[in-house]
Design goal:
Shape: globular
Largest sheet: 6 strands, mixed
Strand content: 15-25%
CATH topology of the domain at 8-126: Rossmann fold
Oligomer: single chain
Radius of gyration: 22 Å
Length: 388
């Protein structure tokens, strides 16, 4: 079963207007399958094959003679030397568009090479795991809690007989072996897996990096390096606070969110919907799940850098979206029927920032339908979030 992705229109548009498209995202999010489906006339080569990666790195001219444009080059981060040669090939034919479609699961490595060699020549898009809207587009009425537990990796929906926990256990093992060693040269994989589980326990919370390092038993600089690796490979998001000169007291600590709820539940050993409902982590799991839905929407609109959270000395709002100086505020609640108490942080933020700065205030929850509360606060079900 093929599940259409909202990003497909942006991918097609980028290929029509730029010579190079770089599609990033965590492993198994469907980058390669999406490109091969959208561009059946392109040839394909994967640098997961060591022989192909070695030639692309050490003999790029010969590699591109064997794989001429238009071509899809998969996992291109394994041959950083190829980027410099791509620059010269692209410059010879700047009118050619959609010539080189590149995928990679190590975003920071890719972006460095793109910035150094392909600035002005490449579009960069990020394909995450499936959003709730994409899942329900293919499977109408799919239960939200089942989607939260199963996560967003397309293979789990294309083949529903796959055991979820086995998939995630294999994913963690494969990810640790293939990507983490390459990105950070980590030798102590057991320590890193403990670190990953410790991050899961902190999802939807402000990150105390020193405490995280201390709890796992690693040096602070090691902890910082591993956080960068997890962020680079699309496994977590560090959400920065929204700064305003009207805010008197603000923290500089980011909030940590695991990027896929299925992986998060697997790391927390949540095995079924009943365990999910009764988990002491349900509020945090739900917040990270909803945050990722909002992030999907903003990425589809080309605004991924506009997401923050707001905090002062005694209040916090889960998500703040900066729209040119005006801010949409979102509180995320597990409840089905929010009360005025659930809107207290939204109202406090509006008073602190000024009504002229705050464009909207919303509570995203499990309500059956959207409805207004007093003082301009709106209740919005997670499946009623507009796509744009």
């Amino acid at each position: 079963m093929w599940i259409p992705r909202y990003l497909e229109a942006q991918i097609l548009d980028a290929a029509r207007t730029r010579p190079v498209l770089v599609l990033t995202g965590a492993r198994q999010t469907g980058k390669t399958s999406t490109l091969r489906r959208l561009f059946p006339g392109h040839s394909f080569v994967s640098l997961d094959l060591p022989s192909e990666a070695a030639e692309a790195e050490n003999a790029p001219e010969e590699f591109l003679r064997r794989h001429p444009a238009p071509v899809i080059i998969d996992e291109v981060q394994y041959a950083p030397g190829l980027f410099r040669h791509l620059k010269s090939v692209v410059d010879e034919n700047r009118s050619g568009t959609g010539s080189f479609l590149l995928t990679g699961s190590q975003k920071f490595t890719l972006m460095k090479e793109v910035s150094d060699s392909l600035a002005g020549r490449a579009s960069v898009l990020e394909l995450g795991t499936l959003s709730l809207g994409e899942i329900r587009g293919a499977l109408p009425g799919f239960p939200i809690l089942d989607a939260l537990l199963r996560g967003g990796f397309p293979e789990l929906y294309a083949n529903p007989e796959i055991d979820r926990l086995s998939f995630y256990n294999s994913y963690i093992a494969t990810y640790l072996e293939r990507d983490i060693r390459a990105l950070a040269g980590i030798g102590r994989l057991r320590d890193f897996e403990r670190f990953l589980r410790a991050c899961a326990l902190r999802t939807a919370n402000r990150l105390n990096k020193s405490q995280l390092a201390r709890d796992v038993g690693v040096a602070p600089n090691t902890s910082n390096a591993w956080l960068s690796v997890l962020e680079a490979s699309g496994q977590l998001v560090l959400l920065e606070p929204w700064f305003s000169n009207r805010t008197k007291s603000i923290t500089k600590s980011p909030k940590l969110h695991l990027a896929d709820s299925g992986l998060l539940c697997a790391l927390l050993n949540v095995r079924d919907v009943e365990q999910l409902r009764s988990s002491p982590m349900i509020g945090a799991i739900w917040e990270s799940f909803v945050f990722v839905q909002i992030r999907h929407r903003e990425q589809q609109s080309g605004r991924p850098g506009a997401l923050y959270y707001w905090v002062n000395r005694d209040r916090e709002v889960d998500v703040a979206i900066d729209r040119g100086g005006r801010v949409d505020l979102y509180e995320i609640k597990w409840t089905e029927l929010p009360s005025t108490k659930d809107a207290a942080s939204l109202r406090a933020a509006a008073r602190a920032l000024g009504e002229d700065v705050v464009a909207s205030e919303s509570i995203i929850c499990r309500a059956a339908n959207p409805f207004p509360m007093k003082d301009g606060v709106r209740v919005v079900p997670v499946d009623s979030l507009p796509r744009n």
